[in-house]
């Protein structure tokens, strides 16, 4: 139940985080959290403004200034200045701590210590923001502890008070350590996540995309109704290379072939589709010309074999064709290329 | 740390990671409570209740530790939270109340990091939030707040501040959860061969590394005969189907005695852990017989050649050597007529 409310709340914040749509996931998460924090702070200052109407008329002006200031910060976040917003958070946190430094406001002081560090871990983008928040929080804690410890001797505060304050001070240090460790954990998991994703999408031998990644990309193109061109490439008589020169040489040829393919099509997605079959999903001009160039390139490259290596290619221009038909038609084109004597390009139209 | 987590399987990465965090944060909390106990001893007059509560906590902590060690993560986290919550109820009675807030912040933080099930995080938030709000709304006993406005501002900052704390924590724990879940799925995906749904070369390499070398293990390399011509004649889709059927057939035959991996286009490997040398013959001949008698739905019979090697510390200590000799055995089988097996 509580979790559903959380999700709805996060969706409501989309209005403020629109300008981060095209950023990476990390920045998007930070922007979402910053917006959430700002909205809640704004809520809290509005509540205080209301309360001050009933309690003391003098505080109304201060309350109104706070509401305007935080609205401006929220507006800044909406404009896409997330680092500046983060810095303002760090500075505001510092002044809040100073404000709550006197002993009468101890509850708020410790609340602010915990909250400040937690929020900073969540929204920081630059490491200096984290370092600044942690260091001023811990320094002010130590300062406060010494100050009131001495005050206890002159009977300004009770012994109970100093006792609880010492416990709180220790807890802030432990909390700083724990949140810092948690931040490492988050970073580490995200890093491993990226690494395993890459591993799952890459063919181990050639370092091109593998078949499941190909399926994924193709499915994406189909779902998005994009226009794209697809080619299946099959190395001719590759079996003979394996049989005559051994598997090791065969692997070498595949690696070299993949490098040439990736270099020739540059930014385009290239995949190893099967044993000696490769696939290219292409978006751009002159695809067939490029394929011809590639075919000639392979023929003229020395792979260290007795006969030059050749390649047969089947290609197709696709838009709004189902997954099965795309593969079937391209495979058919490849089959025709093979039948017409190999080292050949056939397109399905 | 790994020795403490032996009862967790790394294949269930989520549980493994959570157990690891639970272990680390439990150690942190034990360290913290010890320091806090020392402060109590030094600062206040000696009170037997503090010693008793510290000892009770140590017993609870060792129980939690034991439960995590035994693999009962969910129960241990529940006990962890209950212990923290009971203490915060006791702390409400302290005159100033600083210690109370500090305590609930730490409890909620630790439980959100280590939580294993969704209900844990929800119940922790709801219970703690209400306790905190009730504490804030209690009358100002010690006359701490000098103006009414200050008291109101304190109450507002607790009501909103604790909520903010929860939002941030929940969000961060969700980021970690998603990352771990994704690692889990990508990990599985990277070891799976899409075509046959079985293991691929990466899984093969991993399992080879984890093989027990002190006993004899069998390694078979299987290669489908004339697969290329089959592909050319019937098309790639038919070729794919043959590979799938072949993999299913061998997997079913091996059952739990060995693992099948697709290590190349039409090349498969089988690892047979802990077996006698005589058994290797039986396995090879039975696989060949099985493939020969199976109907693949094509007009000509699919057959396979096998190169096998018995890996033992005194026959071939190095895996690469073993692999090479089985590859050579396969080559011999191919050149001397196919549809047969050769032992290296």
Descriptive overview:
- The complex is a heterodimer of chains A (349) and B (344).
- Chain A is an alpha+beta fold and 349 residues long.
- Chain A folds into 2 domains: 2-197, no CATH class; 211-348, Reverse transcriptase/Diguanylate cyclase domain (Alpha-Beta Plaits, 2-Layer Sandwich).
- Chain A contains 12 helices and 5 strands.
- The longest helix of chain A has 43 residues, at 159-201.
- A 5-stranded mixed beta sheet of chain B has the order 2-3-1-4-5, with helices on both faces.
- Chain B is built from 11 helices and 5 strands.
- Chain B has 344 residues and is an alpha+beta fold.
- In chain B, strand 4 (304-311), helix 11 (319-335) and strand 5 (341-343) form a beta-alpha-beta unit.
- Chain B starts with 12 loop residues before the first helix and ends with a strand.
- Chain B has helices spanning 13-43, 48-70, 73-91, 98-114, 118-137, 148-190, 201-209, 227-234, 236-254, 277-293, 319-335, and strands at 217-224, 259-262, 267-272, 304-311, 341-343.
Please give a quick description of this structure:
The complex is a heterodimer of chains A (349) and B (344). By secondary structure, chain A is an alpha+beta fold.
Query: What is the β-strand count of chain B?
Result: 5
Structural class determined from secondary elements of chain A: alpha+beta
Our Rg estimate of chain B from Cα atoms comes to: 31 Å
Helix percent band of chain A: 55-70%
What letter string, H or E per element, gives the SSE order of chain B? HHHHHHHEHHEEHEHE
Task: Tell me the layout of helices and strands.
The complex is a heterodimer of chains A (349) and B (344).
Chain A: H1 2-12, H2 25-55, H3 59-78, H4 82-99, H5 106-123, H6 127-153, H7 159-201, H8 211-223, E1 228-235, H9 238-245, H10 247-265, E2 269-272, E3 277-282, H11 287-300, E4 311-318, H12 323-339, E5 345-348
Parallel strand pairs in A: 4-5
Antiparallel strand pairs in A: 1-3, 1-4, 2-3
Helix pairs in contact in A: 2-3, 3-4, 4-5, 4-6, 5-6, 5-7, 6-7, 9-10
Chain B: H1 13-43, H2 48-70, H3 73-91, H4 98-114, H5 118-137, H6 148-190, H7 201-209, E1 217-224, H8 227-234, H9 236-254, E2 259-262, E3 267-272, H10 277-293, E4 304-311, H11 319-335, E5 341-343
Parallel strand pairs in B: 4-5
Antiparallel strand pairs in B: 1-3, 1-4, 2-3
